[in-house]
TrEMBL record:
Coiled coil residues, start to end: none
Protein name in UniProt: Energy transducer TonB
Family matches, as InterPro entries: TonB, TonB-dependent_transducer, TonB/TolA_C, TonB_C
Lineage: superkingdom: Bacteria
Family: Belongs to the TonB family.
Provenance organism: Flagellimonas algicola
Record key words, sorted: Cell inner membrane, Cell membrane, Membrane, Protein transport, Transmembrane, Transmembrane helix, Transport
Keyword Coiled coil: no
Pfam families on file: TonB_C
Length: 235
């Protein structure tokens, strides 16, 4: 049976080939369009490419500068030594030695003035030669240990916990520093604590300390500072 249409006149026979050729042409045109470069011409383009002729180039003239001559070197002339004749009328100066020798007289002890060393006004507790003496420690073997024990005993005896501090729940340590003066009295009291109420009570306890024998440095009364903590603790 013969086909109704001529195979050579069928348009769909080479459609795949035509499609491939058209696709390749479109891709080529798109690539050329994307890679195409164009430049905008500016009015300064001619100036940028302007070239000067060689005749217009001016070379700086070569000039010769005359420098001043260097200064002449300094020549040190040797000093002139003048030789004079001996003169018998001139007397030589005798320089007497001031170093002591066996003929030097020794000054008596009464003529020598001894400089007095100034004693410090305030001496720390640990370095003072004679520590202050608390009343009742006269017969103690160690006055420093007895002093500290009597201070602790005095604090326990006069300790009163303020009611306002108990109601407010205040407690803590108050560091107290006071100075035993040259006459044995207590002065220069300083303290630091967690609250003013506790500091006031610590000051009241220290104010009740009795008069003591002052500390001494080389036999001279001096001021001796002493520090002690007072602890306030709620049960």
């Amino acid at each position: 049976m013969e086909p109704k249409k001529n195979q050579e006149l069928d348009l769909k026979r080479n459609s795949l080939l035509y499609f491939s050729i058209g696709l390749a042409a479109v891709l080529l045109l798109a690539y050329v369009a994307l890679e195409w470069k164009s430049f905008h011409k500016t009015p300064y383009e001619d100036i940028a490419h302007l070239k000067l002729e060689d005749d217009l180039r001016e070379n700086a003239p070569i000039t010769i500068q005359k420098l001043p001559p260097p200064p002449p070197p300094k020549i040190h002339t040797p000093p002139v030594i003048e030789i004079i004749d001996d003169d018998d009328d001139k007397t030589e100066t005798f320089i007497e030695s001031i170093e002591p020798n066996h003929t030097t007289e020794v000054a008596s002890i009464g003529e020598i003035e001894v400089a007095k060393e100034e004693e410090p006004e305030i001496v720390p507790w640990k370095t003072v030669e004679e520590a202050p003496m608390f009343p009742g420690c006269e017969n103690a073997t160690d006055h420093r240990v007895c002093f500290q024990e009597m201070i602790q005993k005095h604090i326990r005896k006069n300790f009163r916990y303020p009611k306002s501090a108990q109601e407010m729940g205040l407690q803590g340590r108050v560091n107290v520093v006071f100075t035993i003066q040259k006459d044995g009295s207590i002065g220069d009291v300083r303290m630091r604590g967690p609250h003013k109420i506790l500091e006031t009570e610590a000051s009241r306890i220290i104010s009740k300390l009795p008069k003591m024998s002052p500390g001494k440095q080389r036999g001279t009364p001096v001021k001796v500072p002493f520090s002690i903590p007072i602890t306030f603790r709620l049960n």
